[in-house]
Amino acid sequence: MSEKIKDNIFELQDVCFRYPDGSRGLEQCSLSIHSGSRTAVLGANGSGKTTLFLHFNAILRPQSGTIVCSGNPLNYSRQNLHALRSRIGLVFQNPDSQLFSASVREDVSFGPLNQGINKQTVRERVEEALCSVGMIDCAEKPVHNLSHGQKKRVCIAGVLAMQPDIMILDEPMAGLDHSMQNDLEILLQRLHADGMTILLATHDIDFAYRWADRILLMDQGQDVVSCTAADLSKETEQLHALGLGIPNVIQLHRLLAAKGLLPPGERQPLSFTELVGFLEQRL
Ligand SMILES: Nc1ncnc2c1ncn2[C@@H]1O[C@H](COP(=O)(O)OP(=O)(O)O)[C@@H](O)[C@H]1O
Ligand SMILES: [Mg+2]
Known about the structure:
Elements: H1 3-6, E1 8-18, E2 24-34, E3 38-42, H2 49-56, E4 64-69, E5 72-73, H3 78-87, E6 88-91, H4 104-114, H5 119-132, H6 148-160, E7 166-170, H7 178-193, E8 197-201, H8 205-211, E9 214-219, E10 222-228, H9 236-241, H10 248-258, H11 272-282
Parallel strand pairs: 3-8, 3-9, 6-7, 7-8
Antiparallel strand pairs: 1-2, 1-4, 4-5, 9-10
This protein binds adenosine-5'-diphosphate and magnesium ion (MG).
């Protein structure tokens, strides 16, 4: 096994998937997800982000092409799928697709109980997971009484309680208010700092640029750009073509450079804090 493959949790090569009605889900899609990375996937509605995510935990299976997981071709046997879904935590975009138990506590307990973990450990994990998402006070509430944002947080807790190696979140920020989005961003930073690989879909280019270390751009079922966040500024044309726009901080940096307030050849800042640092050195 090559070093390159060992460092990737997933490698897709020429993966094609069509839905039964003939809709194109993925088309010759090739990409890799680096172990330990924070990867943001962007693309218009219908570009294949959700279809891609459903392939990672084997809910969908490619009709052609290969998926390699931690160096081995993905194995779709029942026994392996059980192990795979413990390692690969998927948070669905729509919480109603994921929640099915009567109470919040029951729902978050379901995954780890299904993993065969003893009840005391499950109780501890559930407490910890609900605290992480700020939902411990709602532990005994019926799931159907929760708001959309609360349901999303319970879904995240359910995945966290399984302690996966990689967490995949399909548009986690959608439908959350500003304060919940901030809390989620902090949680994602903490999980990554603790060693988790995180992959998420988003429509927010500013958040993606600020948060991710790798960015994938999807179009018509293909990964058309895979780059580091630091190299995203080189993809201006693709970003415009896909209607994603340029991150605000890059636009401001370019304007300041054009006005001679910053040297033109300087590296693009990754955040407003970094840009302010550049300015403080100059002004
Ligand atoms: N269950 C389905 N049946 C038929 N077509 C589907 C289904 N789910 C998604 N598609 C189609 O597959 C394509 C990719 O969709 P999707 O992966 O959901 O994109 P995204 O998540 O980027 O919005 C779209 O054309 C969409 O209409
Ligand atoms: Mg989607």
